[in-house]
Predict the structure.
Amino acid sequence: MQRGTVVQDPLDVWVARARDGDHDAFGEIVRHTQTQVYNLAYQILRNPQEAEDLAQVAYVRAWRALPNFRGDSRFSTWLYRIVTNTCLNRRRQLGRSVELGDDHLALAADGQLQPESSVIERQTRRELWSAVGELPERYRTVLTLFYQAQLSYDDIAASLTLPLGTVKAQLSRARRALARLLERDEPHE
């Protein structure tokens, strides 16, 4: 590589091509982001089938809205905002509480456990995300965006249309609430 050469993120290239109507490029975007999108949808909906369905709906909405993407934020932030809004709207339509299911937890940030992962690690992750599922929606959402989607504070604020200070406060409160839940469930001798 030559000195001073800037390496462009493949996602940016696919977005530019998809904005020009390239369906294959959008397919690459989906392939590149589908695990994070599903994990986010699942953390909001807590139902694997609904998460899968709403992830697809969010991608259709993103495809249709792609010409309006101005690039003021990262594409992933824009996409996660669409996913979040799609899922929250669905939850409002359903007007019911979410189901908790340990069998379908998004256990790792990339959505897959490596074969060498220990039973203890899987159990710890299961317990952690089960506890996250007990938190209020606003806390679940910021934790998911920060730890699974790996968004910055600024990107979370943009994605949820919240002030930066609110995001930081919610994340701090979410961590404290999660710690209290985990301490409560810890076996005492």
